[in-house]
Design goal:
Elements (H helix, E strand, L loop, with lengths): L4 E5 L20 E2 L2 E2 H11 L4 E6 L4 H6 L4 E2 L2 E7 L5 H14 L15 E5 L2 E3 L3 H10 L4 E8 L6 E5 L5 E6 L9 E10 L1 H4 L10 H11 L3 E5 L4 E3 L3 H10 L17 E2 L4 E3 L2 E2 L4 E2 L4 E3 L2 E2 L4 E2 L4 E3 L2 E2 L4 E2 L4 E3 L3 E2 L4 E2 L4 E3 L4
Parallel strand pairs: 1-4, 1-7, 4-6, 9-13, 15-18, 16-19, 17-20, 18-21, 19-22, 20-23, 21-24, 22-25, 23-26, 24-27, 25-28
Antiparallel strand pairs: 2-3, 5-6, 7-12, 8-14, 9-12, 10-11
The protein binds guanosine-5'-diphosphate-alpha-D-mannose and magnesium ion.
Length: 344
């Protein structure tokens, strides 16, 4: 049986996606047709988990406002808001304590006194969570991590494991030669309550830098290797990819790239791009590898390549925007102006 409850980390500042995250948390940014967090929670709900505790810090009220019914992606939501950022492990401890002392409607008993899920809130994947749980149980592990092959591990946690899945070494954000290809931490974990007892309270604690290395040293950390679809949608390039992959048949589920509530001229050229509700793409405009957020307008003859056009932003007639440019809410790019790799 799948764990009853999950903690999803969604308290980061989303710095790498600024200015898109200036007025909303990263997990509230839409991926195709719904906020990122809904895709993450839906994956857990599919596994049979109905109680998801969101660990929040930055702009926590945005979540309550978006899900007033307390349901999201097919599961019930509860919130644990940190007074200050506690790091990935500190946040999990804080959330587990908040949830078990029963702020809001606590599940019967303490769901964090049994095996539970913990996830990074920016991870979209088709990986088999059931297999992760099976490995965890068959090895009587204290923590089991989903891992994915990656050619450059420097942005991730590098996980070295043996044939049985036992983790020998966990190195967060490896530098230099150590950052070569390998299996990286996918940010999806099965955890035992005993792991919570390893987390010191009252100061920020990193799961990746402190807790996992110590569990590995005790031989109680395991890893499942999966080659399923996986992406961390937390950088400009990966946010674009996450949107495009979900509309181009690379995922188990495929969604329409153009919202039925967008207005796209038949005389516009749209390739590998996502256009969200209320957005307008005028005649002679060209979009390639880009995401147009709700209410934005791409004027006649404008060209947008590998870029994100923010909520209600306007790319003026004949303007050119490229190279992972991120345009914030309501920003205007003037007629004929050219932007390359800009943040505005
Ligand atoms: N509540 C809370 N408090 N949440 C936090 C905090 C905090 O202090 N810091 C970060 N988060 C949340 C973020 O919102 C995000 O959902 C998740 O924790 C991970 O933080 P990121 O900032 O996205 O980390 P990363 O992508 O650099 O690295 C992590 O994810 C990689 C896979 O995507 C690490 O876990 C790596 O080991 C891993 O490979
Ligand atoms: Mg991330």
């Amino acid at each position: 049986m799948s764990p009853r409850s999950a903690i999803v980390l969604a308290g980061g500042l989303g710095t790498r996606l600024r200015p898109l995250t200036e007025r909303r948390p990263k997990q509230m940014l839409p991926i195709v047709d719904r906020p990122m967090i809904e895709h993450v929670v839906a994956k857990l709900a599919t596994e049979g988990t109905d109680d998801v505790v969101l660990s929040l810090g930055y702009r926590p009220d945005d979540f309550g406002a978006a899900y007033p019914s307390g349901r999201c992606g097919g599961a019930g939501l509860r919130y644990a808001t940190e007074p200050e950022p506690l790091g990935t492990a500190g946040a999990i401890l804080f959330a587990a304590r908040q949830a078990s002392t029963g702020n809001g409607e606590a599940a019967v008993g303490d769901p964090f006194a049994e095996t539970f899920w913990a996830l990074n809130g920016d991870v979209l994947t088709d990986a088999p969570l059931g297999e992760l749980l099976e490995l965890h149980r068959s090895r009587a592990a204290e923590a089991t991590i989903l891992t994915i092959p990656m050619t450059d591990a420097s942005r991730y946690g590098l996980v070295e494991s043996d044939g049985s899945g036992r983790v020998r070494r966990f190195v967060e954000k490896p530098a230099g030669a150590a950052a070569a290809s390998g299996w990286i931490n996918a940010g999806v974990y099965v955890l035992e309550p005993s792991l919570l007892a390893r987390i010191p309270s009252g100061r920020p604690v990193s799961m990746e830098r402190e807790i996992f290395p110590s569990v590995a040293a005790d031989g109680a950390l395991y890893a499942l290797r999966s080659e399923s679809y996986w992406i961390d949608a937390g950088t400009p390039a990966s946010y674009l990819r996450a949107n495009i992959d979900l509309t181009s048949g690379r995922r188990e589920m495929s969604l329409r790239p153009l919202s039925p509530r967008a207005t796209v001229s038949p005389a516009a050229e749209v390739a590998r791009s996502v256009v969200m509700e209320r957005a307008v793409v005028e005649a002679g405009a060209r979009l390639e590898g880009s995401v147009v957020l709700p209410g934005a307008r791409i004027a006649a003859g404008a060209v947008v390549v590998d870029s994100v056009v923010g909520y209600d932003a306007v790319v003026g007639p004949g303007a050119a925007v490229a190279g992972f440019t991120l345009l914030g809410d309501g920003v205007t790019v003037a007629t004929g102006e050219s932007l390359q790799g800009a943040r505005r």
